[in-house]
Amino acid sequence: MINTNRTALITGASSGIGTVYAKTLAKEGWGLIVVGRRNERLTKLKQEIQLHHKVNIQILVADLSVNEDLEHLLSVIDHSPGIELLINNAGFGSSGDYFKSKYSIQQQMLDVHITACTRIVHHAVPKMIKRGKGAIINVASLSAFFPAPNSYFYCSTKAFMVTFSECMHIDLKSHNIKVQALCPGFTHTEFHSRQGIVHSGNYLQLKLLWKSPQQVVNKSLKALRKSKVICIPGLLNRIIYLFSKVIPNSIYYKLAAHNSDMFLHSKK
Ligand SMILES: NC(=O)c1ccc[n+]([C@@H]2O[C@H](COP(=O)([O-])OP(=O)(O)OC[C@H]3O[C@@H](n4cnc5c(N)ncnc54)[C@H](OP(=O)(O)O)[C@@H]3O)[C@@H](O)[C@H]2O)c1
């Protein structure tokens, strides 16, 4: 059982951005509850962290698209009154023609990005309100602002996460609870390779557009300290975001139809 007063719960901690959140927070002395499906990855992460830092780490193996696993996670939250930081990071993308893909994959995305995220928040936040402090980071995506072909569910679930976070921010500010929607652009993790996608582009494009998970996490934690609600790591990504606010929809749709895979190539 975690007994520290400062505990962070991180979903999707077994790789990428979630692993980096775990390592970075452990360095700052946070106790951790790390969640993911791959037990061996989580165990390795725990061993690696505890080699350098004296922090409590609880591993929770859970598939967040499976209701029983989610219920188990909620019961862990019930018994861990000290969760001060909640990071809803677990997620995945899917590429290809929506109408030819299996609906079960899209359902899984709804389950992980929306049902799990909102139910975990619903369980954890009342305890934060009681404690009079807390923070939530919902890892959305820059895609939330860019409807794209073949990303129907990814773009819309991430847009949901942004709006959900903004609504909560308005309500929870008076309870001393910070809320952030982290909206990374391209980040070097397993996210794309899991979909059979490799990145391409010239040196400048790759350097400017792609960030390391450490850069993303540093930006997120810095923005959280400043209570920024929407956090977009990377100057170019922030310019692209501003562009989404001013470009007329009709022009955007044409551009999106022609440039959706500008920096990504399917291996297949
Ligand atoms: N990389 C990018 O370019 C990028 C850009 C914008 C936003 N994001 C977002 O960043 C978040 C983290 O992704 P990442 O880039 O770090 O990719 P990643 O390395 O593939 O990590 C994804 C994490 O989510 C977990 N996960 C996926 N499905 C799950 C499920 N059903 N149940 C429990 N855990 C599950 C995975 O753990 P297990 O496989 O062990 O379950 C893994 O720990 C995602 O929400 C993603 O949408 C990524």
UniProtKB/TrEMBL annotation:
<dbReference type="InterPro" id="IPR002347">
    <property type="entry name" value="SDR_fam"/>
</dbReference>
<dbReference type="GO" id="GO:0016491">
    <property type="term" value="F:oxidoreductase activity"/>
</dbReference>
<comment type="similarity">
    <text>Belongs to the short-chain dehydrogenases/reductases (SDR) family.</text>
</comment>
<dbReference type="InterPro" id="IPR036291">
    <property type="entry name" value="NAD(P)-bd_dom_sf"/>
</dbReference>
<keyword id="KW-0560">Oxidoreductase</keyword>
<dbReference type="InterPro" id="IPR020904">
    <property type="entry name" value="Sc_DH/Rdtase_CS"/>
</dbReference>
<dbReference type="Pfam" id="PF00106">
    <property type="entry name" value="adh_short"/>
</dbReference>
<dbReference type="GO" id="GO:0016020">
    <property type="term" value="C:membrane"/>
</dbReference>
<protein>
    <recommendedName>
        <fullName>Short-chain dehydrogenase</fullName>
    </recommendedName>
</protein>
